[in-house]
Amino acid sequence: MAAFQLLFPLLVSCVAASSRPPRHLPPCQVVQMNVFCSDLSLRSAPDNLPHGVQMLDLSRNQMQNLTQETLAYHTGFRHLNLHSNKIHFIQPGLFKDMTDLKVLDLSRNHLNVFARSKINIGPLTAVESLDLSSNGLYTGMSDYFLADSPLLANLSLNSNSITKIANNTFSGSLALTKISLHNNVIMEIEGGAFDSLNHLTELDLSKNSITCITDFNLYNLKLLNLSKNSMESFQSTESNDRYHLLSLDLSENKMLYFPLLPKKNMLKYLDVSRNQLQSINVTGNPDENTTFHLNHLRYLDMSFNQLKSIPESFFSGMGLLEVLNVSNNCIGSFSITDKFHLRRVKIIDLSYNSLQSLTFGKNTLQSLEKLFLQGNDLTTLDHQIFRRLPSIKHLHLQQNDLKICASDQSHQDSPDCVSFTSIPNLQYLYLSDNNLRTLPANAFANTPLILLDLSLNPGLDMDKDSLSGLEHSLVHLFLRKNNISSLNTDLSSLRCLRDVDLSFNQLTILPTWIKTSSIESLNLQNNNLVTLDYSTMLTLEHSLKILYMGSNPLSCCRNLGFLHMVQHSAVVVPDIEKVTCIYEEYSELVNIGNLTPEMCHRAGIQNYVVLVVVIALLVMIVLGLLVRCCHTRKRKHSRSFRA
Ligand SMILES: *[C@@H]1O[C@H](CO)[C@@H](O)[C@H](O)[C@H]1NC(C)=O
Ligand SMILES: *[C@@H]1O[C@H](CO)[C@@H](O)[C@H](O)[C@H]1NC(C)=O
Ligand SMILES: *[C@@H]1O[C@H](CO)[C@@H](O)[C@H](O)[C@H]1NC(C)=O
Ligand SMILES: *[C@@H]1O[C@H](CO)[C@@H](O)[C@H](O)[C@H]1NC(C)=O
Ligand SMILES: *[C@@H]1O[C@H](CO)[C@@H](O)[C@H](O)[C@H]1NC(C)=O
After folding, report:
1. Among the atoms of ligand 1, which is closest to the Cα of residue 6?
2. Ligand with minimal distance to 324 CA
3. Could you give all domains of the chain from N- to C-terminal order, each with its CATH number?
4. What is the pLDDT of residues 346-374, one digit of tens each?
């Protein structure tokens, strides 16, 4: 039975091979010395491969038994791609004579079947890159492939079922520089497993089940990925030797404490996001004074933890940090007062914390360009806090509870407002959902805003001069969900305005200023617009490219001009499906795309016909009555005559 099972695929492959017309490559693509035979249901390589073929792509075929025969006795390959076949057997020693074979991709096959037979594939004489991912390999099985691979530099064992890395796993492949073990179930790494790999610079252990690293001592490693494990602690050995680690990813683990990093390190990238850090302590002892050796760090992500505070001293050694992400924690107050702390930082993300207090001292954060503060509890801030940030360009303040100062207001007049005037580089300002009540005149004077988002502040009372000063800079203005029934601010002087969002308001007529503007994108979704002034639409059409109009109670027959514009101009209406109008007589909703001018004319004609019919009926009834009347009279007459 077993023999039959083995024979059957062989027979089929022989039949397939013999049925092929001779001296004719099946529909493989030949590009110079590269042959692409992907996805052709092949059971073996075409037997008339051009002489000297360097790259053979046999991925996504039906290969089962990888032998000299199935590779058509060619040995000169440099690159062999056998990804996604059904290979469960490899002829031992097959690669021994392939002295040019540098890249071998065996991913997505059934090599666990081969490994179970405990046969060694023999020397991988020249192979530098080997992909064994998705082969159902479990612990120890990689030994049959790696035992003699002296030049192997790049190895992928991703998506297998390996639970343990033994200390001899890589003893036959001492040239390894990169090992990927992503998506296995590694729980144990024997001491010394990587020690003899002097060239190892990249190790990807992400998505495994590792719970802790206690004596990290891979001095030459540059990239270590431990993301998506169950790590509770990461500790390096106490050593004064220099580590070359540049990037350490510890995200999505269960770390309670900050990792204990080597004293002498060159770490540039550290990701500890999505863990359970409650403080930045390295151990459970809060009194222990730890110094952090992170002089080279550029990127630090501690988002999605449970940090309640970060003492300023934490940043004292991070002179080169450029990105700090501490979003989604429980930080109540944040303060930088020393101008040497975070001197190079460009981006700080403090969004979604519970910040009530934020302090930036004089001459601090001079390089800060983007500050994310959305989703906090900020109500009062130092009046001039943002003016002190000379490089600030993007300011995200949505979902707070701030008030905006008038340009001439001093701190005494209104202690709890924050000023947005004279911030020399601020271009993007997000103030949506702040419960803003008023927007005073000249609120942004001398601040070169390009984008202003004031959405979700229902009932916001905008001074008619609130946006003055933005004439030559403002391009995007967002006023969504502000319960605006008529906009009292004349925006026609905003010469650069291109993009206006007025959706989800109560507008009943088009604001007149849009007539003189050069708006390219206008959003009027979900308002109360019944008729659109045709002359306004006509002028708008010159500049307009995108118009959102859905969910308005438009009248069909009173907006034929608009209809014409939608159908004949280059204006795109992305929500055309939702642009309906009310077809007068029957109060029927008609999609504007289905409306034709004739429908409205026909409606007129129909009315006329109905009127004529009604009049005719009335006349007939009157006539009928008259005739009847005369008739009875006559009868009476005749009766009397008879009597
Ligand atoms: C694979 O092919 C070789 C040579 O043709 C043969 O000896 C071997 O039995 C085959 N193995 C399997 C598992 O089909
Ligand atoms: C290593 O191998 C993987 C998978 O085969 C490949 O994606 C990657 O580009 C290779 N890297 C190097 C440096 O050769
Ligand atoms: C680490 O691995 C995870 C999961 O594969 C990946 O999403 C992440 O980008 C990797 N980290 C780095 C720094 O490359
Ligand atoms: C900070 O991290 C959060 C969560 O991963 C992410 O959504 C956000 O984009 C990051 N912030 C920055 C500025 O990269
Ligand atoms: C929206 O405005 C209307 C009057 O125009 C008012 O009755 C209503 O309370 C306002 N709603 C909100 C949430 O401010």
Report:
1. 14
2. 4
3. 1-209 (3.80.10.10), 484-618 (3.80.10.10)
4. 999 999 999 999 999 999 999 999 999 99
